[in-house]
């Protein structure tokens, strides 16, 4: 069972794929109404966990303007409230002396149907329910649920302003069926309710977001929670959606794995990185009889007189990877400071340019670039180190390029330059570097997954596109997305730490036949988990890049899988 849950948590779907999976379930005999009951029942229970109702016993009056007609009627509503009366405080509801008032936003499709089943369930659990439904045409099942809700006396409004006094809102306007840009009056209603700054729980995805790209289609609900149904929708894992998604979680409603596999294939093309996937490679296994050169020999080429810190941070990231042997090539003048920070590493002082960049690599005798299991090149180099970058690209060692390594590659021409390489290449750009490297690929701001996949296919490299939701693609089109991180990492030097960690892991992985994209995904996960843990203990402001390096080992020593 755990295995099923794990597999489900890795799956990421588009709207089309979700619809095909759903069609298989219905074709197999599950009735759509029964599935909606099941799913919405799970949502209602989760909402009760998030916002428990400590209501007062009693009766309430509610002024009702019925949906579908303009007349206003006053109907007395008898609420079935819990037997215990209490006055409690919560972070969301400073003083709760009566039941919680929930605004339910109902759209025309089955997302609206889900919301209406939730409305009914919460109503019977003692919540006070007010419905907003402004569509003249509803899908049949949704219309039936609305009719039943109204028969219970639940008030239903066509004006969003009527819901302003609700304690929180449930967003069932649109789910994965939204394909067109939202227009008024619904767009204006969404803008209005966003201004209220109320907690909003979105069903499946915040209404207004594109299911695949996470793009805002005109306007969108700014949710505090998103309860994603059945399988993760790709749009929720795109950076541009994150301002709207809030805390996202999956409501697993037992979609059979066979149906998922029938639609996505045995090896889905887009996967979420989970703790279990990361720990399938961590800690890297080490046989009892081994030696340092068998456990990965990594060469870092980094730093300049101007950027000494980048070299130290990259090296500290590599140290945390457990790599067997760490060699670090830096400009001669940086050698003492590197030695003092990393006494275990072999520091190779290199001749410098006038500007303090590495002028040429001067490796120890009997060592050439092919001696290394991996080479990482770039952090702090400056653009004056072009010759060095050309030299490592020409080598046959697995290569990680970052920072100025990427900027120099972009100047050389990314695709023709990399075409000559036979060994593995990993590129780790942030969005700006990505655009310089791949000017012909559509801006990743629109669709990061599409962009990173295209970049990997064109360049033949494994590409890690940094961001709030880092995405990694291999040239065959497989994409890994890192679903959890923290803005605490948006801080100078944290990318250098990732480069070091990733390079150290890659140097070990090549000796252990682990797929490159898998170890890159593991590195991205490990790095962000360290950021999350550090932010929990020290606040988001307390995660400088050096501190981050100190948290890396804590993730391995206290695994929470
Ligand atoms: N997957 C599953 O197994 C399960 C799925 N379930 C639920 O079903 C949801 C999907 O339901 P859905 O297909 O009815 O689509 P949904 O998102 O509710 O809305 C589409 C409606 O909006 C309309 N419309 C579109 N764009 C518009 C616009 N710009 N402005 C205005 N209107 C617009 C469009 O109508 P149209 O105008 O195109 O005819 C259509 O009627 C899913 O997210 C989940 O919550 C669960 O109940 C059970 C398990
Ligand atoms: N908002 C964010 N949320 C989560 N992670 C972030 C965010 N912004 C940046 N990061 C992560 O921080 C790191 C920043 O790397 P980079 O931009 O190369 O910084 P630097 O060059 O200063 O080291 C990347 O791993 C990136 O994924
Ligand atoms: K929704």
From TrEMBL:
K(+) binds at residues 111, 171, 207. Binds 1 potassium ion per subunit. It comes from the Bacteria. CDD domains: YXKO-related. Residues 18-261 form the YjeF N-terminal domain. Catalyzes the epimerization of the S- and R-forms of NAD(P)HX, a damaged form of NAD(P)H that is a result of enzymatic or heat-dependent hydration. This is a prerequisite for the S-specific NAD(P)H-hydrate dehydratase to allow the repair of both epimers of NAD(P)HX. This is Bifunctional NAD(P)H-hydrate repair enzyme. It comes from Nostoc minutum NIES-26.
């Amino acid at each position: 069972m755990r295995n099923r849950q794990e597999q489900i948590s890795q799956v990421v779907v588009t709207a089309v794929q979700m619809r095909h999976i759903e069609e298989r379930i219905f074709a197999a005999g599950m009735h759509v109404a029964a599935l909606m009951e099941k799913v919405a029942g799970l949502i209602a229970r989760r909402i009760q966990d998030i916002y428990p109702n400590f209501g007062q016993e009693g009766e309430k009056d509610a002024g009702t303007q019925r949906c579908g007609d303009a007349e206003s009627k006053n109907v007395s509503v008898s609420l079935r409230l819990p037997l215990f009366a209490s006055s409690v405080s919560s972070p969301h509801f400073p003083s709760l002396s009566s039941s919680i008032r929930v605004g339910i936003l109902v759209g025309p499709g089955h997302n609206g149907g889900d919301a209406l089943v939730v409305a009914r369930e919460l109503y019977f659990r003692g919540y006070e329910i007010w419905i907003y439904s402004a569509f003249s045409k509803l899908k049949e099942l949704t219309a039936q649920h609305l009719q039943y809700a109204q028969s219970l006396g639940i008030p239903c409004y066509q004006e969003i302003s009527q819901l302003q006094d609700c304690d929180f809102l449930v967003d069932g306007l649109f789910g994965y069926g939204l394909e067109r840009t939202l227009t008024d009056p619904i767009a204006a209603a969404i803008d209005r309710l966003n201004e209220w700054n109320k907690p909003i729980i979105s069903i499946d995805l915040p209404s207004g977001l594109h299911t695949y790209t996470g793009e805002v289609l005109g306007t969108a609900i700014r949710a505090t929670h998103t309860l994603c149904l059945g399988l993760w929708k790709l749009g929720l894992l795109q950076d541009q959606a994150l301002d709207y998604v809030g805390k996202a979680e999956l409501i697993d409603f037992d979609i059979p794995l066979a149906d998922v596999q029938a639609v996505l294939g045995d090896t889905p093309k887009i996967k979420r990185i989970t703790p279990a996937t990361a720990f399938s490679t961590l800690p890297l296994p080490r046989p009892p009889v081994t030696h340092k050169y068998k456990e990965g020999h990594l060469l870092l080429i980094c730093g300049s007189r101007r950027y000494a810190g980048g070299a130290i941070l990259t090296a500290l990231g590599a140290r945390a990877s457990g790599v067997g042997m760490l060699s670090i090539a830096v400009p001669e003048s940086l050698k003492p400071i590197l030695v003092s920070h990393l006494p275990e590493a072999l520091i190779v002082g290199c001749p410098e340019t006038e500007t303090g960049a590495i002028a040429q690599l001067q490796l120890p005798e009997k060592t050439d670039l092919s001696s290394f299991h991996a080479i990482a090149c770039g952090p702090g180099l400056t653009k004056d180190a072009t010759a060095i970058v050309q030299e490592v690209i020409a080598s046959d060692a697995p290569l990680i390029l970052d920072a100025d390594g990427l900027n120099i590659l972009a100047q050389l021409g990314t695709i023709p330059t990399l075409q000559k390489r036979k060994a593995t290449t990993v590129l780790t750009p942030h969005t700006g570097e990505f655009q310089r490297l791949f000017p012909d690929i559509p801006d990743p701001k629109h669709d990061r997954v599409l962009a990173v996949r295209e970049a990997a296919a064109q360049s033949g490299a494994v590409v890690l596109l940094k961001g709030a939701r880092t995405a990694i693609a291999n040239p065959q089109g497989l994409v890994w997305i890192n679903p959890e991180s923290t803005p605490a990492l948006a801080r100078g030097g944290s990318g250098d730490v990732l480069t070091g960690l990733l390079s150290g892991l890659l140097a070990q992985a090549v000796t252990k036949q682990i797929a490159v994209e898998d170890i890159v995904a593991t590195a991205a996960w490990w790095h962000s988990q360290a950021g999350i843990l550090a932010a929990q203990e020290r606040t988001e402001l307390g995660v400088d890049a050096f501190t981050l390096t100190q948290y890396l080992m804590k993730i391995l020593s206290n695994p929470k899988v």
